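User
Take a look at the entry that follows and flag anything odd:
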Amino acid sequence: MKTVAGHTARKRFGQNFLVSDGVIRKIIDAVAPRNGDTVVEIGPGLGALTAPLLERIDHLHVVEIDRDLIARLHERYPPERLTIHEGDALEFDFGALKTDPGSRFKIVGNLPYNISSPLLFHLTAYAAQVYDMHFMLQREVVDRMVAVPGGGEFGRLSVMLQYRYHMERLFIVPPGSFNPPPKVDSAIVRMIPIDFKKVGSGDTALDEALFAKVVATAFSQRRKMLRNTLRALISEAQLTALGITPTARAEDLSVANFVHIANALAAHA
């Protein structure tokens, strides 16, 4: 196993430590933390982002699962500057970070590749409480997140996240920016929660669980036509009435199309 700054990188935690000062500076500039912001970092690791974040704000929350790294963080930072939440980010209640009913917080992190998708889905539950999120992820995952309909990269992850967030791929991070270097490129993505109060009611799912079911069912056999994949949920005639071609495939539909299907089903439930 690779040893970095006296710490053995653990494959089971997907540890690849960011070491490029230039990339770190670009990430911090993108996050743009200001004193008074509530900021939480997922997976601080050896503190590549932690230290520069604390140069701009008085206090930071971090979520870390590796006890060796937690011990190092305790040695380096006093509790009045750094609150360490020990545990798995997949199970962490980010809503507990709210300081008052109207407050929102910023999330940043170099997310482990092995839990990136389930963690992104976990975070959607807190979208209404988040100001913005900036993550480093495998480039392939980011490309799927920001993909547009009509291409092979557009899938369930694209639809479910684009329903919740305005997303933008900011820049690519090459493997040499890490120690140990991963075998693939990474990318930085910015995610800003959509304010449903400011969008049309027709773009908001009446039943979000049903919306998620429609999306998952449509992409379960993505090469098949919608009239086949969604047969158990909606008829060809109903699809046509919604302006959706029954012979289209899931990747051809927009996020709004999926919302309209789910809302039509909810209205007749």
Q: What stands out?
A: Residues 255-267 form the longest helix (13 residues). The two ends are 55 Å apart (CA to CA). The chain has two domains: 3-194, 201-267.
